[in-house]
Amino acid sequence: MEKVQDASFSDIFRIFFAGFALDLSMASYICVLPFLAYCILGLLPKTDFKRKALNWYTLIFIIVFFIVSFANVNIYREWGDKISKRALEPLGQDPLGAFSTVGSTPVIVPILGVLLFSAATYWLYLKLFRKVSFPQQRSKIWFISLFLLGGVILFSFIRGGYGRAPLNPSRAYFSANSFFNHAAVNTHYALLREFFTRNQRQRSPYHYFNDKKAISELMDPIFEHRPEATVNVLTTPRPNVVLIVVESFVAQLIESMGGDKGIAPHFESLIQEGVFFNQIYAASDRSDKGIVGIFSAFPAQGPESIIKYIDKHEKMPGIGQEFKAAGYHTSFYHGGQSEFYNMKSYMLTHGVERVVDNIDFNPLEPRTSWGVYDHIVFNRMIKDLQKEKQPFFTSMFTLVNHEPFELKDNYQFGTATNVDKFKSTAFYTDQAIYNFIQDAKKQPWYKNTLFVVIADHGHRLPTEKYDIVQPERFHIPLLFFGDVIKPEFRGKKYGNIGNQTDLATTLLNQLGLPNSRYTWSRDLFNATTAPIAFYNSKDAFGVITKDQVVSFDRVGNRINYEKNKEYPTSKTDSLLLTAKAYYQTVYEDFIQY
After folding, report:
1. What is the pLDDT of residues 301-316, one digit of tens each?
2. What confidence tier does 134 reach under pLDDT thresholds 50, 70, 90?
3. For 149, what's the count of Cα atoms within 13 Å in the CB-facing half-sphere?
4. Which of 513, 485, 486 is nearest to 328 (CA)?
5. Centroid of chain to Cα 477
6. Of the candidates 305, 207, 302, 301, which has an alpha carbon nearest to the alpha carbon of residue 540?
7. pLDDT (tens digit, 9 = 90+) per residue, 414-465?
8. DSSP readout, 457-478?
9. Beta partners for 394?
10. In the list 159, 266, 300, 369, which could disulfide-bond 283, CB 3.0-4.6 Å?
11. Segment holding 113, helix H or strand E
């Protein structure tokens, strides 16, 4: 009760309202078997069996429902997490130990609660449905019609609609208060979803070392540096920060990074006025891993994605938390469904006070199949930031530069091929970002604002010549821009090799904010930071240095790409051992979260 004693009526209402879609989905799952039985048995003449079957089915579900509910109350009180597979596993190994972890409540209390509430609910069910009878034998046309109509209704509730993102617990997240979000999530839905979602939460696909000392010897040089070597490029310690995460903005789109001329002309002009890092590599090949790499500085986990698991990603650090603790007002913008990839729950549990997404825009606004066009979202940001208190930390995740590369009109490079479409949406994105910055320059807060632009991941387009094991697929831009950058650093390019995950420490150090929790992140403004980067896909991982790039197929257990064939074999093998130690440790951290 202490969790809700300060909650207002509005908060309580929003908890139930936010979780209603999950409640409907869970209720629909429960109704699937009775519905099928109702339809099929409606073709048969006898009804006694039907009533008894429904009664037994209902009773079993009521008992299971309350067992889970009462167990969840105790588990949440002790662990701060909802009931999960992870919470239930100790029961099979050590039942007494498991019960001792929730010992603050006598076992008799939940047992009595399950018995009393189950009995009362079953009595209520019999009372309400006593006069509801099964239909007599009906025709096949009746069966087919009912089956189709009921099937569509149940499927709609189960999936939560027909948007791109199917229903998931993230839909219920609405608040920066973690307890309110947890309360909104249907406990039984979340538990069933976890049981039936194939994952490798507790089984590492990267096991190469048993000796922790050997791992340390390989890993320590990656993170060694001299703190005094860091250069500060800002004129003020507390600027506003606008972080723009650009969908699929691979290096080959930018002329100064080896791309074709004219795809991102405005970005080229921004490079001349900002601080540009031209040897940065994305953590992985998908947005869910890129978001975590940027905001939490956590490397990719191959076949898994930590953002999928709310109970895990809630325990990670996030730069929004550092900004919020420093007195910043925080927000996140995305034109699509923020429930996709659990972005909404991730942001709200990592210091972001306000999430603006697809649902916050007029339904008549132009949209792609993914959501509202980026320029419309940027316009909303300008409008909102006019009223935002300073200092603020706001971020925007673009979406137009994503398959199927949709524009309302004006495909700059035509639509003949996917390459043409991709280049066109990249051109649009470049224009949208530039227009946003030009509009920002007219605002009173601009002079005290740092803009950071980075891609979520690379792409096979526009060249179509780099395989997923090659570093070019992960090569992305990182740009610091704004009047808060010291004049002597404007137009400067840094060529040291680094990772997307290095942004967190780099940015926080510039602002003098805590960064010790970001153990996988390094300072790109520190000349003693090791020039090395790592990249990861579902079945492979690679490591990049100035002299060599090597990728390893973890499934086939072999090297699948080696850039410099003339490089000494012993040095390539040593580099690969470093990559193996790196991802083994990453996955151990993933399991521990």
Report:
1. 998 999 989 999 999 9
2. low
3. 7
4. 513
5. 21
6. 302
7. 999 999 999 999 999 999 999 999 999 999 999 999 999 999 999 999 998 8
8. ---STTT----TTSGGGGEEEE
9. 242, 331
10. 300
11. helix 108-129
